[in-house]
Amino acid sequence: MKSFIKKTKFFDLYSLGDGVYAAISIPGRGAWSNAGIVDLGDEVLVFDSFTTPSAGLELRKQAELLTGKKVKYLINSHYHGDHVFGNQAYSDTIIISTALTKEWCKEKNKLDDVEKEIQETKEYLHQLHKQIELTQDTILKASLTNQHNEMSRVLNDLPHMQIILPNVLFEEKLIIEGSKRKVELQCLGGGHTISDTFMLLPEDNIAFMADLLTENLHVPIYNPESFITMLKKVKEMDIDLFVPGHGNISNEDLLDKVEGYISFIKQESMKALNNKISLQKFISDFKLPPEYMEWTGVNGIKVNLSSVYTFYAGQGRD
Ligand SMILES: [Zn+2]
Question: At 38, which helix (H) or strand (E)?
């Protein structure tokens, strides 16, 4: 099953089977999310490129070192910077995403004025630093500190960072057939963002889930209904090993945990809406259950209470 191979500056590498590897980020080093390496037979595929060109380049080096083959494909699971800012190291490869993910990468990850971006990032880091000094909450302090460390790495790379967009697009499903194995890209819609792709290795019973699956993290929820539906569909698939977007390699128990978290927020939001409780009061009166006390994320559960409440409030008006 999974076995540790080596530690690099940015991530730990695990073998998940012959020719399948997970790169699990080391917090605060400029990788920020997890990635995957798959030997297709004659060439190599990489799933997600981390948050900095430096980490993305290290991933490519390790992929080519481990397999002795060239990287031909890079998959972008969704538009978030911590999964695509390393794309620069793959500008000569086939970069694949959904059409919507490309559109959002183009819209949201603009880097027109590097000097301005550097100044804004410095200011953001300064604000984070102040928050870290002020907070007494140890979980929040740790989340903020990690955010600060990762963003510092992004700042280091900003002067030479380029936004490289996907160049091959798909909608719902794309099968890449290598000489040794095939991979299946699937997009069942948007749960965490407007469009979320995960990757199945059907012959190996392995799935790379990106941020549709995370460990003990208040992962942003974009569409709770489709998020829950997707996790249920994935659970029906014959998968033994799951590589989450953040956190450790897991089994399907982690699917249940994330689904439970979203369902819980859904229930609480619907209850508040049925009782005509305002969003402000819903958030201020909310008591975090003990099982989520240790979960990290700079905005805690609040941002999800707000987005899920707003989602169902909007549905009610339709
Ligand atoms: Zn994300």
Answer: strand 35-39
pLDDT single digits (tens) 49-83: 999 999 999 999 999 999 999 999 999 999 999 99
Could you tell me the distance, in angstroms and rounded to a whole number, from the CA of residue 8 to the centre of ligand 1? 23
Contact (Cβ atoms closer than 8 angstroms) between residue 19 and residue 180:
yes
Distance 121 CA to ligand 1 centre (A): 19
Ligand 1 is an ion; residues with CB less than 5 A from it: 80, 211
Mean pLDDT, range 90-95, rounded to an integer: 98
At residue 19, φ and ψ (nearest 5 deg) are 85, 10
The model's confidence at residue 84, banded by pLDDT at 50, 70 and 90, is very high
Instruction: Give residue 315's pLDDT.
Output: 84
pLDDT at 1: 80
Nearest 5°: the CA angle 239, 48, 129 is 115
Q: Give the rounded distance of the alpha carbon of 197 from its chain centre.
A: 10
Q: Which residues of 200-227 are buried (b: 16+ CB within 10 A; e: fewer)?
A: bbeebebbbbbbbbbbbbbbbbbbbeeb
pLDDT of residue 227: 98
Q: How far apart are the C-alpha atoms of 299 and 58, rounded to whole Å?
A: 30
Q: How far is the CA of 210 from the centre of ligand 1 (A)?
A: 7
Q: What is the enclosing helix (H) or strand (E) of 216?
A: none
pTM of the model: 0.96
Distances (CA, A) of 63 to 21, 96, 297: 9, 17, 30
Q: What is the dihedral of CA 119, 122, 124, 125, to 10 degrees?
A: 180
Q: Which two tokens stand for residue 86?
A: 């390393």
> 209 C-alpha to center of ligand 1: Å?
11
| Residue owning tokens 């995403």 | 97
State in Å: Cα 205 to ligand 1 middle: 23
What separation in Å is there between the alpha carbon of 31 and the centre of ligand 1?
13
